[in-house]
Amino acid sequence: MDKKAALVVFSGGQDSTTCLYWALRHFDRVVALTFYYGQKHALEVEIAEQIARQAGVEWTKMDVSFISSLSTGCSLTDTSLTIEEEKPADALPSTFVPGRNLFFLSIAAVRAREMGIQHIVTGVSQTDFSGYPDCRDNFIKSLNVTVNLAMDEQFVIHTPLMWIDKAETWALSDELGVLDLVRHNTLTCYNGIVGDGCGHCPACKLRREGLEKYLSSINR
Ligand code: ZN
Fold first, then answer.
1. If both were cysteines, with which of 60, 88, 156, 164 could 168 make a disulfide (CB 3.0 to 4.6 Å apart)?
2. Is 208 part of a structural domain of the chain?
3. Which CATH number belongs to the domain containing residue 144 in this structure?
C-alpha cells in the first residue's frame, strides 16, 4: 500500500473539488474517481474530467448507473421529476439517491485497493446537511470499518468537510488558493449550470449563502 496516495471521490462540484485540492496538499499522489450514476446532467462528468486534468491528477470514471434503476422518485436521476425548492418536513429531499455513498465508497475502496492506495477522500458533510443519512459521520465511520473487514485492509476514509459549513468550505478553498477556480469552474447546481448556477435550486442557495457569508466575513 502506498501510504502517500489518496483516491478522491470526485463529482466536479464545490465540495469534492475543495477535497481534491485538500488531498493535493496532503498526499504525494492523488487519483480522482468520478461516478456516472444516471444523473440528469451528464455534463457533471465532463466538468469533473476538466477540473481533474487541470489539477494534474489521474482521473478515472466509472459507470454505476444501475444505482438509479434500483429506486424511483429521485429528482436527480428521474427526468420526469423536478427538484422542489423546499424539502417537505420530515421527509428526505427528492434529491436523495438511496445508497449512493454506500455504493460510491465501497466501489472506491475496491478501486483504491486495486491501485495500492490506502487513503480515500470524500466531500460529505453533516453540517450543511440536506438530510442525507449517508453523509453523516457515523455512517462513514461504520462503512470504514466494514470495507476494512471486507477486504482485510486498513483504509482510512477522510472527510475534510464533515464538520464545517458552506462558508467554511469556501474559506478552505481560499486557503488552498482555489476559491476562484471552485467558484467559476465547478458544477453544484441541480439544474446543470456551471459556476454560480441557476441561483434558485437548493444547491445553489446553499452555495451562494455560504459564499456571501464567507466574503462578508473577510470584507471582500
Ligand atoms: Zn441551481
1. 164
2. no
3. 3.40.50.620
